[in-house]
């Protein structure tokens, strides 16, 4: 897998993360050996780490597209901790959120807090979260309350007309793929129902990226 430059990383997926943490995030990505994919929203989880994916040679981290930037950052760190555990211990030898994972997660969280200037409410929430780590940030009510303020500012959308044929995007909580562009509209297929729709090119959508 060719090395991905920081400029390419920032251009492709940088807007998912808070700008003050992008150097830290890129270092984790470039020093690892995994793919990073922005996933359609999932009710059951915010992110995922899979060490074996059919048709893919390296592990895969996925993070939901509908998270605010600081939530996306924390979930990414959560999944990188799983990756680090896999590299050190192999996945079959440890519990999913056991002592090994918790140690890796807390180390990454401490490194983040030590290297990035985060908003006071986020920093305090992350510090408190680190004192009693849950297997999912969704189980940390204080953290969820802080994230909620930033979710209302979530504007990681782009115009459909800026996408290319074959690109995937989220619209009204459904996943679509672009089949063809017309003069002012695009023909798109709903990936769940397989039905085709004409969508205005100016429609705001959330693009799904893979790194």
Task: Give the helix/strand layout.
Blueprint: H1 6-13, H2 22-31, E1 35-39, E2 47-50, E3 60-64, H3 69-89, H4 99-115, H5 120-131, H6 141-151, E4 158-159, E5 168-171, E6 174-181, E7 185-190, E8 196-200, E9 204-208
Parallel strand pairs: 1-3
Antiparallel strand pairs: 2-3, 4-9, 5-6, 5-9, 6-7, 7-8
Q: What do the pLDDT scores average to?
A: 87
Strand order of the largest sheet: 4-9-5-6-7-8
How many separate helices?
6
SSE topology string: HHEEEHHHHEEEEEE
Tell me the span between the first and last alpha carbons.
11 Å
Assembly state: single chain
Give a structural overview.
The structure is a single chain. The strands form two sheets. This protein has a six-stranded antiparallel β-sheet with strand order 4-9-5-6-7-8, with no helix packed on it. A three-stranded mixed β-sheet has the order 1-3-2, covered by helices on one side. It is 37% helix and 21% strand. The protein is of the alpha+beta class. The protein has helices at residues 6-13, 22-31, 69-89, 99-115, 120-131, 141-151, and strands at residues 35-39, 47-50, 60-64, 158-159, 168-171, 174-181, 185-190, 196-200, 204-208. The radius of gyration is 18 Å and the shape is globular. It is built from six helices and nine strands; from the N terminus they run ααβββααααββββββ. The chain starts with 5 loop residues before the first helix and ends with a strand. It folds into two domains: 6-151; 158-208, Roll (SH3 type barrels), CATH 2.30.30.
């Amino acid at each position: 897998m060719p090395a991905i430059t920081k400029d390419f990383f920032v251009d492709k997926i940088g807007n998912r993360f808070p700008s003050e943490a992008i150097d830290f995030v890129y270092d984790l990505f470039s020093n690892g050996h995994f793919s990073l994919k922005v996933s359609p929203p999932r009710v059951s989880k915010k992110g995922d780490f899979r060490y074996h994916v059919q048709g893919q040679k390296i592990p895969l981290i996925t993070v939901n597209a509908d998270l605010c930037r600081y939530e996306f950052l924390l979930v990414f760190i959560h999944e990188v901790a799983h990756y680090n555990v896999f590299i050190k211990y192999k996945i079959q030898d440890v519990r999913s959120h056991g002592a090994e994972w918790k140690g890796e997660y807390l180390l990454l969280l401490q490194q983040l807090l030590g290297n990035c200037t985060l908003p006071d409410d986020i920093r305090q929430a992350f510090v408190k979260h680190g004192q009693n780590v849950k297997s999912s940030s969704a189980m940390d009510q204080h953290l969820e309350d802080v994230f909620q303020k930033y979710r209302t500012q979530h504007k990681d959308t782009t115009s459909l007309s800026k996408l290319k044929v074959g690109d995937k995007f989220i619209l009204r909580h459904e996943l679509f793929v672009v089949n063809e562009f017309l003069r002012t509209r695009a023909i798109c297929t709903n990936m769940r129902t397989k039905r085709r729709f004409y969508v205005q090119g100016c429609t705001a959508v959330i693009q799904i990226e893979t790194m």
